[in-house]
Amino acid sequence: MFKKYPNRLSIEKMKQTFLYLSLFLFLIYSSNLHAQYHADYEENHLITDDGTQLYVKKSGEGPLCIFVHGGPGAWSGSFEKLKGKNLEKKLAMVYYDQRGCGRSGKSTTDYSLERMVNDIEAVREHYQADKIYLLSHSFGGILALNYAIKYPEHVQGLILANSTLNMHGSLNAQLQYMDSLSGYKSIPADSTTSSFIASFMQAKTALSEKGLDYKTISDNKQHVDLLNQIDHTNPGNYDFAQNIFQIEDYWKDYSTLTNNVMVPVLVITGKKDYAIGINHYKSFNFPNKSVQKLKGGHLLYFENNKEFCRTIFRFIKHHK
Predict the structure, then answer these.
(1) Which of 11, 249, 253, 258 could bridge to 113 as Cys pair (CB 3.0-4.6 Å)?
(2) Which of 62, 124, 55 lies closest to 92 in space, CA to CA?
(3) Predicted pLDDT of residue 269
(4) pLDDT at 246
(5) Are 186 and 155 in contact (CB under 8 A)?
(6) The CATH number, out of the four listed (3.40.109.10, 3.40.50.1820, 3.40.50.1000, 3.90.1150.10), of the domain defined by the range 11-166+219-318
(7) Which of 146, 71, 53 is nearest to 108 (CA)?
(8) Which one, of 72, 115, 80, lies nearest residue 96 by Cα?
(9) Crossing angle, helix 11-25 and helix 167-182, to 10 degrees?
(10) In angstroms, rounded to a whole number, what is the distance separating the alpha carbons of residues 47 and 43?
């Protein structure tokens, strides 16, 4: 996992650094929890038990599938608009923005991993579904996996699409790929997290100077430009991204826990997904898993949508 940031770096500077990092990282691409619906909000919002407002939207027919977006600090809007909504043909898709992200409210006290997992449970309870499918993208894999660990009785199936279970590992893979494109050699000054992030940002700058920064997401610059255009309509709540760097739980290697996850798992990986790492999926040891490698990069839901949807529909049919 990441170590704590050294005191010589100001908190504000690290917040700004990590916010910039998170915006480009992956998307540039309890049983005691009871969520309550408040009549004075539109039906696309719910209030969690700690008073945080979550944006939610349900569309489509079929088994309930909650989409867990990436970032950290992104939103569900770009997935829905870039053909993700085609899953609504056979699934009741729920798009929600994580607390401190997009159209959801900021948390006054808590962005812990446990809290984020309990928010997913709040969404499930809100729609009164006994069992759900969880579909994660990118960073969302960490949240979805931890939900499946805590609430396996409510998981019909777990779908990890271009998802990481080890943020540090995926960042490192992305850094090495950027160096290979730019010819720049990123060598952290020491083993601290701050040095690693500094090297990552230097590598990204070197790649950007060559006009190739889109390559970590897709070979098609127009697709990345379209993603950016949609993401620019994001209401701009990046509070989660600004807080996450100081929470160590998000930087653990959760692939080490996959042996104990018994729910059915579908892993969808891109043959050129350099944002996550083209070999990252090989560290997943789920006992009941299937793996589908698709042509494309980090945006399979958009660039290879027909095969993406077909793969998920086959999984749903097999694990009803």
Answers:
(1) 249
(2) 62
(3) 98
(4) 80
(5) no
(6) 3.40.50.1820
(7) 53
(8) 80
(9) 70
(10) 11
